[in-house]
Hints:
Elements: E1 10-15, H1 27-36, E2 46-48, E3 54-56, E4 74-79, H2 87-104, E5 111-113, H3 128-139, H4 145-151
Parallel strand pairs: 1-4, 1-5, 2-4
Antiparallel strand pairs: 2-3
Amino acid sequence: MINPVNNPKKIIIHCSDTPDEGDRYGIKDITEWHRLRGFDTCGYHYIIRRTGVVEIGRPETEVGAHVQGHNQDSIGICYIGTNHMTSMQIKSLLMLIDAINSRWQIPTEEIYGHYEFNDSKTCPGQDMNVLRTMIDLGLDPRLRPSNLLALFGAKKS
Ligand SMILES: [Zn+2]
């Protein structure tokens, strides 16, 4: 079966709702759980393990299965955990969003948490206003170390 084509205009963040401790879970587990729910494969496009390792669930151009009513124009990213992201996960999330933006140019205000589309959910267990601010700062080229040096008048070696 060929899945319909995705036309990403937003990014939606999820959590796996598994313990914040350890590095036990990843793409294999999520794929298995989603297959049990009747999906043909992992519903998310990306998984970010506790270690920060990014795993691919499905191609960005394929419609995902992660949020009702918004699968046709979004990319779903799920971090492993419940309400605490590791610093490695945050770093990977920023790099991943940067990479996605190079292909789809998605503005930060179009990055959502699952709960913003479903009142009965708390997923991804993060205050999205805080996360969006962090993403904005993290993606700001002016804040890249080399540019900060320039801002402070230091000479680049
Ligand atoms: Zn979710």
